[in-house]
Design goal:
Blueprint (H helix, E strand, L loop, with lengths): L1 H17 L3 H9 L13 E3 L2 E3 L5 H12 L6 H7 L3 E10 L4 E9 L5 H12 L3 E4 L4 H13 L4 E3 L3 H4 L16 E6 L3 E5 L6 E4 H9 L8 E4 L6 H19 L9 H9 L9 H4 L6 H12 L10 H15 L3 H23 L5 H20 L4 H21 L5 H29 L1
Antiparallel strand pairs: 1-2, 3-4, 5-10, 6-7, 6-10, 7-8, 8-9
Helix pairs in contact: 1-2, 1-15, 3-4, 4-5, 4-13, 6-8, 9-13, 9-17, 10-17, 12-14, 13-14, 14-17, 15-16
């Protein structure tokens, strides 16, 4: 038991210090497994269900179902088939709790779960049965029937109501991310949320979580079995690359690359009502906003980070599938851009500021408990989350220094990201048209 506690502590410490995902931090701490299959991570399972981990909830959910069908189609290729990376920026101001939250979109069509699912599965040639209903009872009955028939389902529960992230009531209805419901256990639904262990959610709570957000209320996707050949996968990769290039070449400053340019300007503007010097003139919610940048851009958050590293892995696969070596060169460029995002996140929430460093540690502790132990780690996750949200509230009161220099630094970093991504996408567009 002591050894396991020490391992968990080392993984959490690395996540908090480096901003790495749980999977990456664990791999560095544990190292390759010994014995047969050395060099590959130990495969965790729950009965017949194999946990495959993953970085981004949407692509990881599809990849997990396909892997459990016996298909060798990993998350990078699934992510690419959906159009790869995206861009988007929103600063939310909530009056009920004086919070400020930055939302950064990093996946193609990040704001449209259903559209992204449809085109991703369509390109991969995976049949899918989508079910929606406004009735909670009908939705629960349908999910139970699918699970009893041995068909795992991709669903989209509200995080607050799902419960296992232990979020405060102020986040009720803020949304969630896709997970795989793969079996029932008495009066509970068991889900895979990119971790290594089952997460059991009482059915009544899970039903409420699925019904909470109107835009995707009770949505359920059941993936049919298929065996896409290499030609289908190559076509999916090429279509995804062209989609990505076209999407990020658009002029929208809300849902394409100009969103980064707009954000850079708003960080230092003094006139626009949504400019950061105006919004944070009273410093209210500043720590929340800085934390949300770190959570969005880095993989310790719940959505997988900026995803440029995942896209780079996908480009490497596409280079081989399409016999286009130049795509592998672009993969290296996007790994460099991933590093730019990492540095931006570190600047937003520096670990050497005590109040902010402790928030990083607690955020990592919650995620490690959820992904590492599932429901078995629920008590630890709850304790860490309770301290986390108290620390966030305290930090919002403690961060009172003039944020002007920080805003200027962040603006410079966001501008650099914008220019790097604009050039990289222009190069990518030339390679796939």
């Amino acid at each position: 038991m002591t050894s396991k506690k020490q391992l968990k502590a080392r993984i959490r410490a690395r996540m908090a210090k480096t901003g790495e995902s749980y999977t990456t931090a664990r791999r560095h701490v544990v190292g390759p497994s010994a014995g047969p299959g050395a060099g590959r991570p130990e495969q965790a399972a729950d009965g017949g269900w194999r946990f495959t981990g993953g970085r981004h909830p949407s692509s990881a959910a599809i990849a997990a179902v396909l892997a459990n069908q016996g298909l060798d189609v990993g998350e990078p290729l699934v992510f690419l088939a959906g159009g790869g990376i995206g861009a988007g920026y929103i600063l939310w101001e909530f009056q009920h709790d004086d919070s400020r939250c930055v939302v950064l979109g990093f996946r193609n069509q990040w704001q449209y779960h259903d559209r992204w699912m449809a085109k991703t599965l369509g390109r991969l040639g995976v049949p899918c049965d989508e079910h929606r209903t406004s009735g909670t009872r009908a939705a629960s009955k349908r999910l139970a029937a699918e699970l009893d028939a041995g068909r795992p389902c991709v669903v989209l529960p509200d995080r607050y109501h799902a419960g296992y992230w232990h979020l405060p009531a102020a986040l009720d209805g803020r949304g969630g991310h896709p997970v795989v419901a793969y079996r029932r256990d008495g009066d509970a639904v068991v889900v895979d949320d990119r971790g290594r262990a089952p997460i059991s959610v009482p059915r009544e709570r899970f039903d409420a979580a699925r019904a909470r957000v109107g835009s995707y209320r009770n949505v359920l996707h059941v993936l049919g079995e298929t065996k896409p050949d290499e030609a289908t996968l190559a076509a999916a990769a090429l279509d995804g690359l062209r989609d990505c290039a076209a999407h990020l070449s658009a002029a929208s400053d809300s849902f394409s690359l100009p969103a980064w340019r707009k954000w850079a300007r708003l960080l230092v503007d003094t006139r626009n009502a949504k400019a950061w010097p105006k919004v944070f003139a009273d410093r209210r919610g500043l720590a929340d906003a800085l934390l949300s940048i770190w959570e969005c851009a880095g993989p310790v958050g719940m959505d997988g980070g900026n995803l440029r590293d995942l896209f780079a892995d996908a480009l490497d696969e596409a280079a081989a599938l399409l016999d286009r070596p130049a795509l592998a060169e672009q993969a290296e460029r996007f790994r460099e851009i991933h590093g730019l995002w990492h540095d931006l996140a570190e600047a937003a929430l520096p670990a050497d500021v005590p109040e902010l460093g402790r928030i990083r540690e607690l955020t990592a502790a919650v995620k490690e408990s959820v992904l590492g132990d599932g429901s078995a780690g629920d008590h630890e996750a709850a304790l860490a989350a309770r301290e986390l949200w108290a620390a966030r509230a305290a930090a919002n009161e403690a961060v009172t220094a003039d944020p002007g220099p920080l805003f200027a630094e962040l603006s410079t970093r966001v501008s650099a990201v914008y220019e790097a991504e604009r050039e990289a996408i222009a190069r990518l567009s030339a390679l796939v048209t």
